[in-house]
Amino acid sequence: MKARILAAGLALAATAPAFAAYTPVDVSSYLNGNVAIDPQSFPVGTTTGNQDTGVPFETSAYPSGSTTMGTWLASGTGSTLVVDLSGLGITGQASFYALLNNYYGTPGADEYDITIAATNGDVAKYTSIGGVDTRDYNQNIFTNTIASTTFPWFNNGQPDPQRLDLREFTLPGEFADDTIASFTITQVNDVDIALFSGLTFSDKPVVTSVPEPASLAMLLSGVGLLAAVGRRRRAVG
Description:
The protein is of the alpha+beta class. It has one domain: Jelly Rolls, CATH 2.60.120. About 15% of the residues lie in helices and about 35% in strands. Strands 1, 2, 5, 6, 8, 11, 12 and 14 form an eight-stranded antiparallel beta sheet that branches. It is globular.
């Protein structure tokens, strides 16, 4: 009986959608350019990149080149991209991910802001600090450091490499019952233009970040308490 149940479970796992927890968004209609260096090196289609994050994006070709990955590039302070999501029925999400970089950046500067809005009026806003949350598409130029909520997603492997970074965002709890209406990028810094290449939502919490220091301390405290209880039980026994 146990063997039959296990076999059935394996069959279900094999037929489950490959990216069941994720909803990649087609942003091809919002592309306005491509990256200037080796754009043909970057993926086109639904892919998880080559840096083992496991998060899929639907990346699109630049309209004038079917093998060249397209992107959206900000045009200066105040330039805004609004991705309309109201007709897609993206409901009950816990997190979202975006492929976001600067073309060039300034350490410590607020480069661009991200806003997620729901159809009922709920709004979540996020900043993008150079060298903390966002860094250069061109590696080893101006901003190269990132925090624990930004990860390498694709690297083209050139001697002077270019990259796409995955940024993860946790949605506020009230979004658990909301339908997503829009995703907006607003450029803040005039010269450090944003580079946006993909957007994916998930009904699961973010899975790639490490615990915040306070959370980690609570976790370690709990592990210590459980260990102490175990030692006391063994002593009583």
